[in-house]
Design a protein that fits this description.
Length: about 130
C-alpha cells in the first residue's frame, strides 16, 4: 500500500478544490459528513464492494439500526442478501437474531481511538499483517 506521509489541508477544502480544478488530481468521490455521504467529483470509481471487490462507489449505512458504519455493497451482492447488507458478520448476526443489540465490532473498534490519526495508523498496521 503506497500511502503518502505528507498530508496537507487545502484552503476551502476538497469541495472548493474540485470546483476550481474539475480536471485536477482528485479522483472518485468526496466523502462528506452529512446525509449526502459522498459527492462525485468525476466519473472515476476507485472503491469496491466490501463483499466481492467489484468496483463500486454507492455508500450506504449498515442495515442494523444501532450501527453507524457507512459501507459499500454492490447491487448484485445486495440482491443476494435480500436487499440488505451489513458492515460486518457480527452486525448481520445481531440484527437477524435480535441477540445483543450493542455496537458491532466495527463501531467499537473505531470508537476505541482518541483521534482519526491513531485509527489510521492502526488500520495501516492491520493492512500490512
Amino acid at each position: 500500500l503506497n500511502i503518502s506521509s505528507q498530508i496537507y489541508q487545502l484552503e476551502g477544502g476538497i469541495h472548493e478544490y474540485i470546483n476550481k480544478y474539475p480536471d485536477g488530481y482528485f479522483r472518485g468521490k468526496n466523502y462528506v459528513f452529512d446525509n449526502r455521504i459522498a459527492l462525485a467529483a468525476n466519473p472515476d470509481v476507485i472503491s469496491s464492494c466490501n463483499y466481492c471487490d467489484t468496483p463500486y462507489d454507492q455508500y450506504a449505512l449498515c442495515c442494523r439500526p444501532q450501527c453507524c458504519i457507512v459501507s459499500l455493497c454492490c447491487d448484485e451482492c445486495k440482491a443476494k442478501r435480500g436487499g440488505l447488507f451489513y458492515c460486518c458478520d457480527v452486525c448481520q448476526h445481531i440484527h437477524q437474531t435480535g441477540i445483543n443489540p450493542r455496537p458491532c465490532a466495527c463501531t467499537t473498534e473505531r470508537l476505541a481511538f482518541n483521534n482519526v490519526e491513531d485509527y489510521y495508523q492502526y488500520l495501516k498496521r492491520r493492512i500490512q499483517l
